[in-house]
Specification:
Layout lengths: L3 E4 L5 H12 L4 E4 L8 H6 L7 E4 L2 E4 L1 H11 L10 H30 L5 H21 L13 H18 L11 H12 L3 H17 L1
Parallel strand pairs: 1-2
Antiparallel strand pairs: 1-3, 3-4
């Protein structure tokens, strides 16, 4: 099977979603950045917005992480990430949505403030409040089993893992040493994912890249 070209950086939580989906499905990928950058004329032919992730799978070019995850799961039938049953599918998508829309944005705010060398108390407190709310809801909807939406990996894990990475690591940059404190299901899930054969490898890549970026 020819490798799927994934344009992007492992540190991007949006790219990480795609890498997780491919890895859980056992699909080979080649992770690369566009030769002349994401705003180059050549890359803009693939993605007119000049954003990552973008994939090239043979003659198929796609962008937007959720679209790519759906595509990979539809094309490759083994190790399905989107449950067939309506209830299970709905639950997996709900968990993914909470992570994507409420947890990840707050974590990314911490990271972006750190990169910009900003430490405005009101902004930090607002991000903390936003993150706490997202994590509280995630604690209610996450499965409590091995994976985010049950006993097997689903698209939920592809969204929750990178969201929690930024919640934990970026939050720590502003003194949040116990970001997940009191949320037993989420904390236990995070511990499992760091040791997970698939997620653990991608999390390590994200961590290594974050250190490089922050070191300048």
């Amino acid at each position: 099977m020819a490798a799927i070209t994934v344009y992007g950086s492992v540190l991007s939580p949006f790219v990480a979603r795609v890498l997780l989906a491919a890895a859980y499905k056992g699909l080979p990928v080649e992770l690369t950045m566009p030769k002349d950058g994401i705003k180059s004329p050549e890359f803009l032919k693939l993605n007119p917005f000049g954003k990552i992730p973008t994939i090239k799978d043979g003659a198929t070019v796609l962008y937007e992480s959720s679209v790519i995850v759906d595509y990979l799961d539809a094309k490759h039938k083994k190790k399905k990430l989107i449950p067939a049953a309506a209830k299970a599918m709905g639950q997996a998508r709900l968990v993914a949505a909470i992570a994507a829309e409420y947890v990840q944005p707050a974590g990314l705010k911490f990271f972006r403030m750190k990169r910009a060398n900003q430490n405005v108390p009101a902004d930090v407190e607002a991000a903390k409040t936003e993150l706490a709310k997202g994590l509280d809801v995630l604690e209610k909807v996450i499965s409590g089993k091995k994976y985010a939406a049950g006993a097997a990996p689903t698209l939920a894990d592809c969204f929750v893992v990178p969201a929690l990475f930024f919640a934990v690591h970026a939050g720590a940059l502003f003194g949040l040493s116990d970001v997940l404190g009191g949320r037993k299901k989420v904390a236990a899930y995070w511990e499992r994912m760091q040791k997970d054969k698939v997620a653990g490898k991608i999390l390590q890549g994200m961590s290594d890249r974050m250190k490089q970026v922050l070191a300048g």
